[in-house]
Amino acid sequence: MKTCAIVGINWGDEGKGRMVDLIAEDYDVVVRYQGGSNAGHTVINEYGKFALNLIPSGIFRREVINVLGNGTVIDLEHLSMEVDKLRKAGVYISSENLKISDRAMIVFPYHKELDALEEARLKDKKYGSTKRGIAPAYSDKYQKKGIMAGELLYPEYLKNHLRDILEWKNLTLQNVYNSKPYTLDDAMAWLDKYATEFKSHICDTGVLLREAKKNGKSILFEAQLGALRDIDYGIYPYTSSSTPLASYGPIGSGAPDISLDYVIGVVKAYSSCVGEGPFTAEWFNEEAEELRKAGNEYGAATGRPRRVGPIDILATSYGVTVQKADCIALTKMDVLSYMDKIPVCTGYEVDGVELKSFPLTPVLEKAKPIFIEMDGWKTDISGIRKFEELPKEAQEYVLFIEKKINCPVKYVSVGPDRDAIILRGGDE
What we know:
Elements lengths: L2 E6 L7 H8 L5 E4 L8 E5 L2 E5 L12 E4 L4 E2 L1 H13 L9 E4 L3 E2 L2 H14 L11 H9 L12 H21 L8 H11 L7 E2 L1 H10 L4 E8 L22 H5 L8 E7 L2 E3 L11 H11 L11 E3 L1 E2 H11 L3 E5 L9 E10 L2 E2 L6 H4 L3 E8 L16 H14 L3 E5 L7 E3 L5
Parallel strand pairs: 1-10, 1-11, 2-5, 2-10, 5-7, 6-8, 7-9, 11-15, 14-16, 15-19
Antiparallel strand pairs: 3-4, 12-13, 16-17, 16-18, 19-20
Helix pairs in contact: 3-4
């Protein structure tokens, strides 16, 4: 039995979904262990092109069991829509290959409304929420005001619990935001419409995963977003509301007693992010738009244009450390093929002093990037499958990054398709 986590090293949007889709055939179970429908894992394979929000990226491998762990927050309406879209494309989904933790929290319509209301109140100081109810749902969880998926199996308990929560929740909706209250009938009608089909998917995922381990099955943990969006170690408060770190994988899966054997950190060959907050290496104007178009940098979950810039060595090194990455998958190398010179952000400067480590948000707000330039390769590399066949300049770019972040680059992605990958030496 082997366990592996595929995690984001930067701000998210690194290409984790394509990596999970690529290597899921080597694993028996794929687990999403945090986050919700604010994720956007883009996958291109024989079924088509998909932006997965909730469902683990192993769903395209029929024999793989896919798990939504207790660390996730689940919008049943969104999940129903996502399942329907995948089934229409010919993807097999049943209660046998998609499991939902009985301890995962449910995202209700009032969570989404509260999310939008708060972003509107913040105006130009907004955090960059996807407005999909993620922060309010996690907030309710930690205030002990959430509804677990497992409660759907106990209707009378669920109804009484939900009644109590709505009494409290409506105080906020009415008195803080001057919005209409949610009734118990509204909430129950929504559950009747969207929860029924998923009751057979709900289980104790800890039992399932321990049984898998006992039987020698391999488990892959799939993260949402990246290290710099972590609630504890990211660019707070411009973060997600959960922890996408690899070390949380077993905890958010349902089986905290299972340990990780290997961590694959995913890094884009340049920088991108969706949302607000400091982004030191960011480009603007024409050069940003050219890179954005070349990489099709628009949020998979929201469609928002991503902020873009050169790869950021300081931020990436920090991400490698907190994720404890064993190797790196470098994605979208092909996108840089149009550049004569490729800038690299090697560090930050604050008040004339170069920083030695990745700082807190108040310091980041003042940081200025330090750039160098490397030679571009100016040729299409999307058909290359061996590292030594890459142009010399492309090889040097990969080796430079590898040395600076002190972590081996094992995978080099040269295109969006499943097989557009270069595998360098080393085993998991």
